[in-house]
Design goal:
By secondary structure, this protein is of the alpha+beta class. The chain is built from 3 helices and 5 strands; from the N terminus they run H-H-H-E-E-E-E-E. The protein is 27% helix and 14% strand.
Length: 207
């Protein structure tokens, strides 16, 4: 008996093929493809969002600076250049130069403005009061060296506390005793940062 015949006779059962079938290979490729697609998507999302904390921090810094500027503006019933600005306890005491919404004619167009009311031409409406020639600027009128950021300010007559500072007698009145200042800054990510602050009258001279 030859050697080949002896080996065949000793092997139990039929011959088995070594390796993988075509179906197994295709299934393996499909599974690996799905797994790689998921990993690549996670990496892409992580890379795209990795700058978001920096964008939000920059937007927050801009919003804080602009809010501080508006809150530091004078808050008088009469225009700060008026003779009654230091003594007026109501808008009726202003013989001339009563403070209204918006910057007074003939006053400087360069920020910071001399009164909180000057930053908007009407209450409750967001306005791009920090832009000069369509560029976001600081209080001195210098362009802020950032790209893709925009800012608006809203000023809302407000009441503070039960039995405390009452709301204005008329909706949207410019002689309210308390104002809520809302700064909204949007960055390249499109997710805005919103800061609110208050300015209240606490003496005849609210400088």
């Amino acid at each position: 008996m030859s050697t080949e015949s002896t080996v065949r006779a000793a092997a139990p059962g039929p011959w088995r093929q070594a390796g993988v079938t075509m179906v197994e290979l295709i299934m393996f490729m499909v599974i690996i493809g799905i797994a790689l697609a998921g990993i690549i998507r996670v990496i892409t999302m992580t890379t795209a969002n990795s700058a978001d904390p920096l964008v939000r921090k920059q937007a927050l810094m801009i919003a804080e600076g602009l809010l501080e500027e508006v809150r530091l503006a004078q808050f008088t019933y009469c225009d700060p250049t008026s003779a009654q600005a230091d003594t007026a306890t109501s808008a009726a005491d202003c013989t001339a130069g009563k403070e209204l919404w918006g910057r007074e004619a003939g006053t400087s167009a360069v920020r910071p403005y001399d009164n909180v009311n000057d930053y908007v031409t009407e209450p409750n409406t967001p306005q791009a009061s920090f832009n000069f020639n369509n560029v976001l600027t600081d209080a001195a009128g210098r362009a802020i060296d950032v790209r893709g950021y925009s800012a608006t300010v809203s000023i809302i007559p407000a009441a503070i506390g039960a039995g405390g500072i009452a709301a204005a007698n008329a909706a949207g009145a410019a002689d309210a005793d308390a104002l809520r200042i809302r700064i909204t800054v949007s960055g390249p990510s499109g997710d805005p940062v919103v800061l609110d602050g208050y300015r209240a009258r606490y003496a005849p001279n609210f400088r």
